[in-house]
Amino acid sequence: MTTQTAVVGTGIVPFGKFLDRSIRNLAEEAVKSALDDAGIDAGLIDQVYFGNSAAGLITGQEMIRGQAALRNTGLLGKPIINVENACASSSTAFFLGCQAIAAGQADFVLVVGAEKLTHVERRVSLEVFGSAVDLEETQPPSIGSGSGSIFMDIYAEKTRQYMAATGATREDFAQIVVKSRRAGALNDKAQFRKPTTIEEVLSSRLISDPLTLPMCSAIGDGAAAIVLCSRNALKKLTAPRPIWVAGTTMASGLGASAPVSGAVRVSRAVYEMSGIGAEDLHVVELHDASAPAELIHYENLGLCAPGEGPALLRSGATDIDGRISVNPSGGLLSRGHPIGATGAAQIVEVVMQLRGDAGQRQRHGAKVGMAENNGGQIDGDAAATAASIFCK
């Protein structure tokens, strides 16, 4: 395997609910941090890919989202490509940035994911998610019958099916939250940093049966940025700490006709592309928009055999510093899920882990990591799914 693209800089801001912060303010901080980490200034960047999902619905800013957000960063004049692909927006931006370097079109690419979901009217924030499904598709009666979050109803329906197929329990899902909050407590960028217990999770307000409030990712704001560099351009850096992109791929949903989910398809594709298998992974950041989704993705990504997600969780292998440390950032449940920023944030965490910079949540000896992200919904399948593998 010969890799030609490296991550040489990352930046991330604290995630949370910030009514007083704009997308511009969040993005500027993340970009500065990433450029400083790479040891370069904006002048060396050849292209920018700006991932955002909801600005048009929350703030009204459309068409030139990246140009507006980055106008004070020294990046105007560069090609700025706006990328919207639901929760996979900045994962898609990363995929495109890697393609640009692989094609020889750029030596330095900046990938940004930025999102502001909070609004003075909560209704406006919730309506964002209703636009990430095919509006001409008829949903089952159970979808839309919960507390107002259409995607939590979708996850609840999938959860009930998963419980019937595997014997997974509500206690298993609560344990995912406990694990997530434990990681979040060690991450100064996480939205939720208070540890919890299984009992507290199970006794919390029911959102969409069987999901209680802590089992659902929350509304939040945030930004993350990544500097990509070609192998040949590494010599331009004074003290590079490259983490190599072993493979990156994505797919759109096939709907009910799909023999397997998008997560299965992209994970197998990136394993083949990179020559790295699930058994080689030390760290995985995956799309746990609900607690049961983590168990489901254990199986989708081949971290265990079908039906063995609960057993893998119970073994402790996926905990902090476990054999396969899953979502050591706290994941979407605790780090937070400002949807357009999530994919970039996952990659930032994997890079930190492979660099050995994750502090108390470090998976010791981590050399190989994966980031997997889903976005939207098409007839039971994620509308967009992306996966990338990284190595030292």
TrEMBL record:
Keywords: Lipid transport, Lipid-binding, Transferase, Transport. Signal peptide: none annotated. Pfam families: Thiolase_C_1 (PF22691), Thiolase_N (PF00108). This is propanoyl-CoA C-acyltransferase. It comes from Verticiella sediminum. GO terms for molecular function: acetyl-CoA C-acyltransferase activity; lipid binding. Residues 6-231 form the Thiolase N-terminal domain. One of its GO terms (biological process) is lipid transport.
